[in-house]
User: Fold this.
Amino acid sequence: MSGPSAQRPVLRAVLGLALLAVAAGLANALMAPSGFPNLTAAVDASLESSGVGNPVTAVLLNFRAYDTLLEMAVLAAALAGVWSLGRATPTLALRPSPVLVGLLRVLGPLFPIICGYLLWAGASQPGGAFQAGAVLATSAVLYVLLAREAGPRLPELPMRVAAVAGVGVFLAVGLAVMAAGGGFLEYPPALSKTLILAIETAAMISIAVTLAGLFLGGRPRSEP
Amino acid sequence: MSGGLLFALGGIALFAIGISALVLRPHLLRKILALNVMASGVFLILVGGGSGVQGVDPVPQAMVITGIVVSVSATALGLALVLRIARMTGHASLPEDRNRAAAEAKAE
Amino acid sequence: MTALVTETPWIVWTIALPLAGALASFMLPRRSVAIGLAAAFATAAAAAGLVAQVVARGAVAHRIGGWDAPLGIALGADGLSALMLAMAAVVGLGVSIYARSYLAPTPEKARAFWPLLLLLWTALNGLFQSQDIFNLYVTLELLGLSAVALVALAGTGPALIGAMRYLLVSLFGSLSFLVGVALLYHTYGTLDLSLLAERSADGLPVAVPLSAMIAGMLLKTGLFPFHVWLPPAHGSARAPVSALLSALVVKASFYVLLRLWFTFQPEAPGVAVLLGVLGAIAIFWGSLQALRQRRLKLLVAYSTVAQLGYLFLAFPLAGGDPALNWGGSVYLALSHALAKGAMFLAAGGIMMEEGHDDIDGLDRVVDRMPLTLAAFALAGISLAGLPPSGGFVGKWMLLQSAMEQGLWYWALVIIVGGVLTAAYVFRVLGSAFTESAQEHEEHAVPRVMELTALTLALAAVALGFVAPWALPLLDGVLP
Assistant:
């Protein structure tokens, strides 16, 4: 008599075969000869007028900037979602670990320098707002850990403003250049480097604060 | 076979393995991790497929950066939900998975 | 005035306005209700502007960043996009006005609601006007995350679990879609839909990624057998959220599926028939399950599962006049959005008034809430496909398409489905007119809530009358 224990190996085998078929199909489609050029040449051709030297940064913040704008909106949606679930729960009141405090004393000042460099270097080498934002977020997370254990209250309103600033600046720049004549996010060639840097700086701060806010797991507590 | 293609095939394998874990594992944390593995697989397909005779294609790399951020956002929301569910119900799994696991345990 | 309509880049405003509203309402939570409502009106106005622009000029486009595809992302709105945007605007505005009153007793939830609603609306408007497959992926993810968060907002155990399940399914669907995007870019070197249409030919390099993308969209739309997540999520969310989900969110993934099908026009009669069969099973299964439900919101949620099945009947009927089967499906999508939105808003009102949503315990609720019951009844008329509603027009077109091609069995599915729909609608209405011994509370329900539900229901019926003006917008879009 077949019961759940007898059905399970059969289901597993069926699932395994199905996935094997899916993988084979995907591999087959992957290895089909591609006769069409990809976008490498197109990016190289327009790179000079993009305002940055790194092709990936150019794609992210100029050619396909609209995708980056929406992606930052996704981050904001996650933050709005996580914070809507409730307040952050306090951890046990411990004395802050001396390791954490010592680490932050040494690394604390280094983080903004590293992030600033990553942001600036992103114009011509691998780097940019997201990489810098992720590193800055790490320092923000360490600070959150310290705050949870040692008790300083996290400022909710400044966090909200900072989290929103990335998309806000991006949207504002996009609409401003549209008002000046041109398309949405169509940077005037002379200003493109500056505008991209401005957007990236706001984005870096936003990403850091958003990731810290997500790590918090809920709205910051205004009272202990 | 070029190196890029090898990575892409590895990405396909990761995608398939991730699906199996998503479907089979009852614990919600495992399911979220499975989705992350699947996402990593797709990113490998994108980047691996993008290196070829025409040089390194920057567009898939930009797509992957975007994809990573989206993936992090979704994971964060998922984890927050898992925490609340665990706190509220005492379990970190969906009811249907718990029932299935209980039925199998009883049958053994 | 006409220059205002034809020259303004409405495409950009339909996306920028809700996004700006979302940011502002998140930044200033204490004022989020006022900001949110203002942004809702502004977004609806921008959508109206876009529809007027498309009616006047035909399909419009916007060059983002001044870059053309394939280097940049192409945004464009044709007749189909315009209809979808109008649908989102009417339902979105109705839900917004309703939600202001509905959420007033729970101010913390109200504050969190508006940023999420506006981000969801941004995603919808962006999705309906995107012509780039990776951009579609990002909008789908924005849509999914806001929708999940809105479901979880209810805060109850079932809502959180429903949200979690929805998140897992949604992400699975998105990743499946992304695999398709990756493979298509690898093969054809572009992410733009029109360029992909030019460069692609039938065969495995298209069939595999297209199947992955379609599978992802089926998961997100909740077609049988991928519907399991839908009733718990739509049934446990708060009423305005359920309305948004059933009316708009599931239509977005269906829209993406349609766009993919129209772009690649696959020669796959087997797949088309499979989609039709799954749609038919969804109609029967969903309707039967709806009849069995005790709770009103779950009945309405299962009704969504059933009604979505109708949309997929267009695929096996694609052999005849495309205006009939595809037009019918699109029109059904529009009518369902209005009718289902009205139904969920009505259910929310009943639940607020009675304190429960037990169908058998409605105890002559019609005496206390005649407007709400009228809304429910009108919505039911459209869902069942009775004239002169929008649902009737859509079903009539599908029936015509089936009979023209001699495929009478699909016509039978449509007719039987209509009977089943009428059955569960009348079950609710009958109970609303009957006394019951159930204990219930009697709370006052703001008149605004009843009126918005009624307006959406009337719009569903009115959709039938505007068909001669709405349907021609689809010329040039359908294959």
In short: Chain B is about 80% helix and 5% strand. Chain B has a mean pLDDT of 91.
